[in-house]
Amino acid sequence: MTSLSRAALASLPASVTRPGHDIESLRTGVVHFGPGAFHRAHQADVFDRVLDSDPRWGIAAVSLRSAGTVDALKAQDGLYTLAVIDREPSTRIIAAHSDAIGPGEGAKLRTLLADPSVKIATSTVTEKGYCLGADGSLDFNHPDIVHDRARPDEPASVIGWIVSGLADRRAAGAPPFAMLCCDNMTGNGGKLRAACVALAGEWDAKAGHGGLSDWIAHEVAFPDSMVDSITPASDPAFLAKIAEELGVTDAAAVQRERFTQWVLQRFDLADGPDLGAAGVTLTNDVQGYEQAKLRILNGAHSSLAYIGLALGHETVFEAVSDPALGAFVGRLMHEDIAGSLKPVEGLDVQSYAGAVQDRFRNPAIRHLLSQIAWDGSQKLPYRLLDTVRDRLAAGESVERLAVPVAAWIAFLHRKATLGEKITDPLAETLAQAAASADPASAVLALRQVFPAQLAEDPRFRDAVTDVVPAFLEGRATALLAR
After folding, report:
1. H helix or E strand, kind and range, residue 55
2. Where are the alpha helices (DSSP H) in 34-67?
3. Would you report the helix, strand and coil content of the chain in percent, each value rounded to 5?
């Protein structure tokens, strides 16, 4: 079977949507670091739509570590399949990549970053790819940063390449490119700016003159962003299905749910792409969107996980399809969580909560509750306890919010008493507390999770301790009427 290519487009089934622009006319205006599945299913989809009316925004895909994806893109003329998996699935060919750069092609990358036609750089390299320490600042002891401090002309890290490209722009008197971090880190633009400024300061000191770090700090746009879309792995079964549907193989095919969200802080870019027309939400309150996602989407996910597992469910779809549990989580989202949020520019919180519920009901996404249940000690403070705190401050009831917290404690108790592994950084501490004679009080006493002011508030403490026995004794269903 032949591979997907420009020549193969004409032979694809009519059900497959072709690119809406002339592929031959693409020009590179964006450099993207980390062309993994999420980028190809998300940012590239956005720029593919922009390209339908403006050919200047082709993407050069850059992989600093692995050649697999860029080699596949090169072999397929930059084309790949985006399969949207939902009740009404769809298949589309993406033609957003005008170039691909892999390991060992540093000279080409440096030339491209220096090109004034490239006005935007984006990145999806996961949080660890930015070489940050636990406090969110640049880790100068990271091996890649140690290398980049000593050898600025041959960067190893993404941070090094960004600073190197900006340094070349400044030396040539050219305007900088805007740097858009698309990884899920709170305040990601600010963190990336600080990391780049820190490394540039080291380079300034090494060169014996200053200027670069200040120029980056004051002249380069690092807008905050938030991205969201479930993107399952492109496993062999999926790739085989795509080959059967298209009649050609596609080594770079990706799949995602229909819902997709890219929230981007407004920034100045002369004659830039019309990202808003392509579905990007431009706002001055990215933090508000992040909080809504954490509390509504992630808070509901954790609630479904712990309660759903107690009821014998395995996936999000199964849990939300349980009439009593689905209705309970709906009330939790629309009444308790949405009511705790401050107004956010451009966001209808109730509509967003409804969209999240609809995503949960997607039968094509198999999202395991057991996986969502991992690392509860790290997740619950942001996903549920912040909402509890705000509801208490407003004098509102937290009886419904206490149910998923109690479900987590009962989940820990079951794991501990059965000797099963608890996947959590505080696993040993949690297991010891949960296995005690009074697991509710013992877990609530863990200050790594529950601040004293919250755990000692009788409105919350009593609501949780009163509910835990129902989970331990198999009487959880009655709680869902709340």
Report:
1. none
2. 37-41, 43-51
3. 50, 10, 35
Host H or E run for residue 101: strand 97-101
| Adjacent-strand bridge partners of 470 | none
Element (H, E) at 215: helix 212-219
Neighbouring residues of 339: CB distance < 8 A, sequence distance ≥ 6 = 391, 396
Six-digit token string for 342:
């401050």
DSSP symbols for 121-149: EEE---GGGG-B-TTSSB-TTSHHHHHHH
What is the model's pLDDT at position 376? 96
| Element of type H or E holding 95 | none
Q: Which DSSP symbol is given to 257?
A: -
Structure confidence at residue 210 (pLDDT): 75
Bridge partner list, 212: none
Distance of CA 351 to the CA centre of its chain: 21
From the list 449, 447, 443, the residue with the least C-alpha distance to 431 is: 443
Q: Answer yes or no: are the C-beta atoms of 188 and 224 closer than 8 Å.
A: yes
Instruction: Work out the angle at residue 63's Cα, subtended by the Cα atoms of residues 59 and 64, and round it to the nearest 5 degrees.
Output: 135
- pLDDT tens-digit map of 179-217: 999 998 999 999 999 999 999 999 999 887 779 999 999
The model's pTM: 0.91
Q: What are the tens digits of pLDDT across the range 317-361?
A: 999 999 999 999 999 999 999 999 999 989 999 999 999 999 999
Picking from 180, 227, 152, 131, the residue whose alpha carbon sits closest to that of residue 31 is: 180
Q: Which amino acid would we find at residue 213?
A: S
Is there a contact between 113 and 165 (Cβ–Cβ < 8 Å)?
A: yes
Q: Which residue has the tokens 């004659």?
A: 271
Q: Are 353 and 299 in contact (CB under 8 A)?
A: no
Q: What is the length of the chain?
A: 482
The Cα-based distances of 165 to 36, 113, 329, 405 in angstroms read: 22, 5, 48, 48
Q: Which residues contact 127 (CB under 8 A, 6 or more apart)?
A: 183, 184, 185
Tell me which residue of 423, 311, 410 sits closest to 376, measured CA to CA: 423
Query: Which residue, chain included where needed, has tokens 């755990």?
Result: 455
At residue 49, the 3 state secondary structure works out as: helix
* 171-187 pLDDT tens trace: 999 999 999 999 989 99
